[in-house]
Write a structure and sequence with these properties.
This protein is of the alpha+beta class. The chain is 44% helix and 26% strand. It contains 2 helices and 5 strands; from the N terminus they run ββββααβ. A 5-stranded antiparallel beta sheet has the order 3-2-1-4-5. The longest helix is centred in the C-terminal third of the chain and has 33 residues. The chain is elongated and about 70 Å long. The model has no long low-confidence stretch (mean pLDDT 79).
Length: 139
């Protein structure tokens, strides 16, 4: 997956980047610049970057697919498993539904802690910068 953004802060090797929206209208001049960027993203790099540089970076597709599976598929599977397990224990329908939503909430909590402890480190180490466009007047 290829994406780009503008460097907001450089602190040693830690770079804070505001990622550009990847939609059809993201590079149009009709909106203000604040509407063209999404979340801030931090990662370590050995490249020499300066505030204002536009960086294009890549993350392996299989890493993105793994993250999407964890965030989108695991909670759905947990919800079905919660319903299935409660129905095999012969609970009534409303109780099975409550168990399925309880499993969904627990899976979201698990994904949250996975992201805080392990998830960000996986992406931080797998980012490859493919191009750097220096800000005019700073070269």
């Amino acid at each position: 997956m290829k994406n780009s953004g503008i460097v907001k802060n450089v602190n040693g090797t830690l770079v804070t980047l505001s990622m550009y929206k990847e939609t059809a209208c993201s590079h149009c001049n009709k909106c203000s610049d604040s509407n063209k960027v999404t979340n801030d993203f931090k990662f370590n790099t050995d490249k020499k970057l300066e505030v204002g540089d536009i960086v294009t970076f890549e993350i392996e597709d299989k890493k993105v697919l793994k993250a999407a599976t964890i965030v989108y598929i695991i909670p759905i599977i947990a919800m079905f498993l919660g319903y299935y397990l409660s129905s095999t224990l012969n609970y009534d329908e409303p109780t099975c539904i409550i168990f399925s939503f309880l499993a969904l909430v627990l899976s979201f909590i698990g994904v949250y802690f996975y992201d805080k402890k392990l998830g960000k480190n996986h992406f931080e180490n797998d980012i490859v910068i493919s191009s750097i466009k220096k800000v005019e007047g700073k070269e």
